[in-house]
Each structure stands twice: as structure tokens, then as C-alpha cells.
Design a protein that fits this description.
single chain; 282 residues; seven-stranded parallel beta sheet; alpha/beta; 11 strands; 17% strand
Length: 282
């Protein structure tokens, strides 16, 4: 493993950014932890960063040679702010960029897909992580986790569609590999857990592990879109509801061995993740 250089972790207090920063610092790597409040992160140098405040970008890039990119949350066109930053990063001496995308978004696809397409032309060393849906969506602060805790309900438009849900810890482990190994992947990497599960399965496992009854309410695309639009911008709500509809049609019914190949250990199952979180009092 290459221990030289400094990594800028954007979104260093988020679900994958925080875990990636922690793994990097634990392994002895230098990290600049970027967030909108420059929140302190153990072992890292905090730095102010806001995608929509270009005045914060130069200082964040100062002294770093690689970057972990978390797109701005809820933006249906993140390329508008990300591509100017990435061009600035290249000029500043960044030589490796690792982008967090999604298994649901191919190169050149909507939203961050345009950034994916541009990355190889901007950097000689790069990777695009395309994880499936996060297991943490059911145990953190995501709308699913909140509705499970408050109502014992999961609402989706996924029907009986199956997903290779992946643990954010496994995503972070893959990110560290992509950022620090001598040879960059220079490809996109689809990350999944070890099995595919429907949201009915998620409800059943959650009920069994926590002892609290949880059910899956199947909504139509329109019902899901409107449900989300009460909380987030309408355009993004439509995008997410469309992803649910794609899951219902089988788009996420796959498992890869990428986590094992990159990290040398198998991806964690949802049941194991939930048991760990329950023990930790999440």
C-alpha cells in the first residue's frame, strides 16, 4: 500500500466519507476532512468545503494529491458544480480521483453519470465506485430508517424487486483501496452485498433481529414520487421514485464479488449488519 500523499475526503462527516476518512487515518494516511462546517474528524485536518461556494475550493485542494468525491446531495445535475471543481483539482496537482456514484447510474447516465464519463479524461488515475443501495438506509437517518423506527413501515415502489444491498463499511474499504493502492483501478466498480433481498425480505429480517414488527408498504411510482416530494425537491423525488421502479423491473437484481476482490474478505450480509447495529444501540 502506498502511504505517501494526502487525500482530500469530501463529505468527511457523511455515511461513506466518514468511514473512509477513519480507515485512511487508521492506516497512517494523511487526510484533509472536508465538510460544510469544517467539522473536526479524529486524526485528520478539518477543512471548510461547500460544492456551491467555490471560494472554499482552493484551500481544500491545497497540499493534496488525491480526492474522494461525494456528489452534492439531492442535486439532479451535480456535474454543473463538480466539473469546474475537478478541472481546478487537476490544475492544482491532484493525480487520483475516486468518485462515489451508484450501481443504478451508468457512465454517461443521469445526475452523477456525467461526472463518471468525464473523469478518465481529467485524471490519469481514477475509479468510480458504484455501490448498490446502502444497508445504512434502514438503520441511520434515512427516511426508511425513520419510518421503521417511528411506524414499523418501509415504503417503496420496488414491488418484489431484489437489491444487492451493501454495507457502507464495505464501500469505505473499497474506497481506501482505490485511493491508496499503487495502481489505481482506472475503471468503475459495482459494489454489492453477498445476496439480493427484496424490501419484503428487509422487513422480515428487521422484525426477526429487532423484535419490532416491520412491514413493507408497496406504493406505485406516482405515490412514491409524491411521498418523497413532500421532503425533497420534486425533480430529485421523481429520480428516486424512478430508481424504485427500475428495481421493481429487476435493475438491481445482481451480486458482484468486487468487495472480496478488493479487500480480501467477503461483503457483510444485511442480517450481520443489522445485528451489529442493534448491539451498538442504533
Amino acid at each position: 500500500m502506498n502511504t505517501t500523499g494526502t487525500t482530500l475526503v469530501i463529505g468527511a462527516t457523511g455515511t461513506t466519507g466518514g468511514r473512509t476518512a477513519a480507515r485512511l487515518t487508521a492506516a497512517g494516511h494523511r487526510v484533509k476532512a472536508a465538510s460544510r462546517q469544517a467539522t473536526p474528524v479524529p486524526g485528520a485536518e478539518p477543512v471548510l468545503f461547500d460544492w456551491y461556494a467555490p471560494a472554499t475550493h482552493a484551500a481544500a485542494l491545497d497540499g493534496v494529491d488525491r480526492v474522494y468525491l461525494i456528489p452534492p446531495l439531492g442535486d439532479a445535475d451535480p456535474a454543473a458544480v463538480m466539473l469546474p471543481f475537478l478541472r481546478q483539482a487537476r490544475t492544482a496537482g491532484i493525480h487520483r480521483a475516486v468518485l462515489l456514484s451508484s450501481s443504478a447510474i451508468p457512465e454517461g447516465g443521469p445526475a452523477v453519470g456525467a461526472v463518471h464519463r468525464a473523469l478518465p479524461d481529467l485524471f490519469g488515475q481514477w475509479a468510480v465506485l458504484r455501490p448498490s443501495w446502502f444497508m445504512q438506509n434502514f438503520t441511520g437517518t434515512h427516511v426508511h430508517a425513520v419510518s421503521i423506527r417511528e411506524e414499523g413501515v418501509i415504503r417503496t415502489a420496488t414491488g418484489s424487486g431484489r437489491v444487492g444491498f451493501v454495507d457502507a463499511e464495505d464501500i469505505a474499504a473499497a474506497a481506501v483501496h482505490a485511493l491508496t493502492e499503487e495502481h489505481a483501478p482506472n475503471t468503475d466498480l459495482v459494489l454489492t452485498g453477498p445476496e439480493t433481498l427484496s424490501h419484503d425480505d428487509i422487513a422480515t429480517i428487521t422484525t426477526e433481529v429487532t423484535g419490532r414488527p416491520v412491514v413493507h408498504h408497496r406504493l406505485s411510482y406516482e405515490q412514491m414520487r409524491d411521498h418523497l416530494a413532500a421532503r425533497i425537491p420534486a425533480e430529485f423525488a421523481a429520480l428516486l421514485a424512478g430508481m424504485d421502479r427500475a428495481i421493481a423491473e429487476g435493475s438491481e437484481n445482481r451480486v458482484t464479488d468486487t468487495v472480496r476482490r478488493l479487500t480480501g474478505r467477503p461483503a457483510r450480509s444485511f442480517r450481520a449488519h443489522l445485528e451489529r447495529e442493534t448491539r451498538n444501540g442504533d
